[in-house]
Structure formats: C-alpha cells, structure tokens
Specification:
This protein is an alpha/beta fold. Helix content is 39%, strand content 21%. The chain contains 18 helices and 22 strands. An 8-stranded mixed beta sheet has the order 4-3-5-2-6-7-1-8. It has a 6-stranded parallel beta sheet with strand order 9-16-15-12-14-13, with helices on both faces. Helix 2 crosses helix 3.
C-alpha cells in the first residue's frame, strides 16, 4: 500500500472516528490546499470498510477532475479496492466497495435511488454542501439518519451561508502556517500590483462578493491586464504560474497580454472543450506553457506542484476563495523554494478585500511588502512574546512595589526608584529582554554607580537590597510610604517648585502627592539626560 499517511492525516482520521463514536454524524475536516485531503479520505474509506457490515462508501464531488483524483488516490491506497465511478454516462456501482459520484448525477432521482447499501458518506470540497442539490443527496443517503458523514475542505466558509445546518462540528483543523513550518507546503511571499486607474469602488457586491462581470470590465478598462504582464516579467519571469480572473474574456485577455511580452500563456475556462482543456493543462505540466490564465476553474482539483507564482487578478471579499486561489502555488516540488503571490490592487476601493493575512487563521497583522507569510508570523510571534513578558513583568512589579512599606515611585518610562535626598536617589535598571535587575545609585556629585559585585538579580532580591540601602541612607520618615507628613497640605514651597518644573498639581493633592510629582519629574529628567548622553 502506497501513500503512507502523514501524522496530521492520521490525526484527522482519528478525530472523525472519535466524533462519530461520541454520537455526532456530520463532521468536517479543514485542511489547507496541498495537505492531501484526498489521501486522507481515501485512507478513511479504506479503514472504515471493514466496520460497515458489508455496506459501502460513497464519495461525492462536483467536478470531473475531483472525481478522477479521488478514484486514483483510492486505488493508490489499496490497489485491491473495487472503485466505481458514477458520472453522466458512467454508472459503475454494482460491485464497487467505494463509489465516487458527481453530485450533479446524484441529483437525478433515479440515479441515486439505484445506489444502495451506503454506510459511509464522504464529501469533497464540502463548503458547497449547503447548496440544495447537496442537501437533497445527503438526505437521501442517510446523513441525517445516522450514516457517518465526513466533509473535507480547505475553507469552511461559503457566502450564501447554511453550512451550520449541514455540518455539526469541525473536528480537525490545520493552519497553513503549521504546514509551512513542517515543510509540507512552501512559504509564500506577496507583492502588490498597484493599478492606479483601477477603481473597484464602482464594482457592486452580489452574494457576498464582487460581481464578476463588473469586475472583469473594471480590469479591462483600467489596463490591469497589461500591468499584470509587466509585473510578471519583472518579478516572476522564470516562474511557472497561474492567473485567476473573474471572466472568460479577462482570462483570454490576460493570456494575450502575457504572450505580448514574450511569456507563453494559455487560458482555460469552464465551458472549454474537455479534450482541449486537458491538452492545455498537459502542456502546462510539461513546461511547454509557462502561465495558465483561468476563469476560476483551477480553484479546486488542480494539482500542479511546480506552480510557483499565483496572480490574483480576481480581487475578492471571500477569504475562502482567496485561500483556494493562492493554495494552488503552495505545494512543494523539486527545486522550488517558495511561492510568489502577485495581488492586483486598485487605487480606490470601498470593499474589504481578502489579502495574504487571510491565508492563516492566526492574527499576524498586515505584512510588509516582500516579507513571506512565515516571516510575518515569526515577527508577530516575537512581538507577542515581548508583550507577554512585559505584561508579566508589569504584574510582578505592581505586586511587589505596591505592597512595600518603602515609598517606591516610577518615572514615565517605567523605571522604579526611591528618592533619598534632593541630591541622591536609588533605582533599578532592568537588563533588556530579561526579568533581571541591577541596583543603581545616583548622586549629584558622582553620577550613577552600582554595588561592587554588580550582578543582575531577580526583582525580589534587587528590591530588598535597595530598600535596605534606603533605610540606611535616609531618614525612615522620608522613605516610608505611610509617613504622617504625607497626609498634610502641600507647602507653598512645594507648589512653587511645581510651577517652575511645569508640573500640574491636581486639585485636592496632599503634601505626599505633590512630593511624588516633584520626585518623578526630577528623577525622570536626570535619567532622561543620562540616556541621551549614552546614546
């Protein structure tokens, strides 16, 4: 048996079986394009057949390419498996262990009624399953009557909704960044193709996404197709690629623009003759054609791992569709280091369009031009770690300093200090990127100096050392948090000093409050000067 499953593929199968054991029936698995969804459900069918009590497995797909792929993978997993195809004139289901059928054919009542003894249902590209044709077929074969049903897709979103009525739970989901990090997919680097004359704000929305016809006309009228060809020669001249367009006319126009700049390109579209389309795809896979332009027919079931450039000339509001388009370029191949994403952008748009950040479910922020998805994620993770460390340090500091009997204050930049006299204070200097602190003393005559050993210490140790020094060097009443003098009214001398320092004194402030304002301003100024001098 070939096509040994990868660890995550086995995890997906186990998640489905566990979900069924827990009493659920209709379960979905979301795996990125290129992760081997067909391999997963082929192994699932193979492993489940022995437990179906003589019943059979049914795989439902909606395109010829998907049907052929599924049948091929099933036989690769188990060459002894009897696989039948039910599509149009083909009706090979009588003796099959696994039936791969088109939803269009099963939508015909007499065709689906001829197929019996189904004990497992698998739906490929299951984000389509909310459509009435799918719902009718799934109902017929028992998806709502206890027959285990598994759906596979790269994206669990569909603009016309209803998916929650079909799928009870997503039992396994793998993020594209995990696939890239583990080497199962290529990293992707994005670059925008900005077309100043392209105004997408005039394009209307229907069914949750931009209207294809209006979008196609906007691309043609703006000269975007020539801009795509120029960008391809500049950034991807040595890369085989796929261009996604909204209409047949724009697919044909994009191919013509590419040929005009010396790049071999051919268009494919849905109503193209089957033999002609197969021949075009074969020439692309053989390297005779460098670029395929297409009117949204290669978003599903297209498998050409050598593709290393994807041009999204079909701006979309749908993250799911965007993921499907870009995913065509992420499969690894010999000699392929990464994938290049060229994203067509207009000068104006009132729409929130999908972009490279929508390839992952993680929050990574907007990528900088030229950075890869993995690089953007790594920068975001590092920033998150820094923020988490800062939050932990902040919480620890507030807890320790706030509970001390000594009057600790903090400057505007976060440095904790104890004011001893007008010419001396103690403070803690944190080593960058750590939670260790060094003890420091500042005097007007000698500046900054530390203890003889000058070792960075954990905060509790450093705090205790400085507090001990404070009680030796200054009167207890001056450094104590609860000193009685702090409760009195501020003196005229204090208020005058605040005016000279430019410090605002809130109404109702006590003598202690004003003393703290003065000390923060003075010490902050001294430390600021020291930092500037060091820089």
């Amino acid at each position: 048996m070939s096509f040994t499953p990868r660890p995550y593929q086995l995890d997906a199968i186990e998640a489905l079986r566990q979900g069924w054991a827990d009493g659920k029936t209709r379960l979905a698995v979301v795996l990125p394009t290129g992760s081997g969804k067909t391999v997963v459900f082929s192994h699932l069918a193979h492993r489940m057949l022995g437990s179906l009590g003589g019943r059979r497995a049914l795989v439902i797909a909606h395109r010829e390419e998907l049907i052929e792929q599924a049948a091929s993978k099933l036989l690769a997993v188990d060459p002894m498996l009897r696989v039948g195809i039910v599509q149009a004139q083909r009706d090979d289901h009588q003796d099959a262990d696994v039936i791969v059928a088109s939803v269009q054919t099963l939508a015909v009542k007499r065709r689906r009624e001829a197929i019996r003894d189904i004990g497992l249902i698998i739906v490929d590209e299951c984000h389509h399953a909310a459509a009435p044709s799918y719902m009718e077929v799934l109902e017929h074969f028992g998806a709502w009557r206890g027959v285990p049903t598994a759906g596979f897709t790269a994206t669990m979103t569909r603009t016309d909704g209803g998916l929650a009525e079909v799928w009870e739970d997503v039992v396994f989901r793998l993020d594209i960044l995990d696939m890239i990090s583990d080497g199962y997919l290529c990293d992707v680097r994005g670059k925008s193709i900005k077309v100043d004359t392209l105004d997408l704000s005039r394009v209307k929305t229907r069914g949750g996404d931009l209207v294809d016809g209006q979008l196609g006309k906007a691309l043609e009228d703006s000269g975007a197709l020539d801009a795509i060809a120029k960008a391809y020669t500049q950034h991807a001249s040595d890369r085989p690629g796929v261009v996604f367009t909204p209409t047949v006319a724009t697919a044909q126009g994009a191919a013509a623009s590419l040929r005009a700049v010396g790049i071999t390109a051919e268009p494919v579209w849905g109503d193209m003759g089957r033999d002609k389309r197969r021949a075009t795809l074969a020439r692309y896979e053989a390297g005779e054609v460098q670029v395929l332009t297409n009117c949204m027919v290669l978003t599903e079931g297209f498998d050409a791992p050598h593709t290393s450039c994807v041009v999204v000339a079909r701006p979309t509001k749908s993250p799911g569709l965007y993921v499907q388009m870009v995913g065509r370029g992420l499969r690894p191949a010999p000699g392929k280091h990464d994938a290049l994403l060229l994203d067509v952008m207009g000068a104006a748009s009132r729409h929130r369009l999908a972009s490279m950040v929508d390839l992952t479910a993680r929050e990574i922020g907007e990528p900088e031009e030229g950075r890869s998805l993995r690089e953007v994620a790594e920068v975001h993770v590092a920033a998150e770690k820094r923020r988490a460390l800062a939050a932990r340090v902040e919480a620890e500091e507030i807890n320790l300093f706030g509970g001390s009997a000594i009057r600790w204050l903090r400057t505007g930049d976060g440095t904790w200090f104890i004011r001893l006299t007008s010419a001396m204070f103690l403070f803690l200097a944190r080593d960058p990127g750590t939670r260790l602190y060094r003890m420091r003393r500042w005097t007007e005559t000698h500046g900054v100096h530390g203890p003889t050993d000058d070792v960075a210490r954990p905060l509790p140790e450093a705090l205790a050392w400085l507090e001990q020094q404070a009680t030796v060097l200054a009167p207890g009443a001056f450094v104590a948090r609860e000193a009685r003098w702090r409760l009195g009214q501020p003196s005229s001398k204090q208020l005058g000093l605040c005016r000279r320092l430019g410090v605002m004194v809130p109404r109702g402030s006590s003598a202690g409050d004003v003393a703290d304002l003065i000390d923060r301003a003075r010490v902050g100024g001294v430390l600021g000067q020291l930092t500037s001098a060091a820089a």
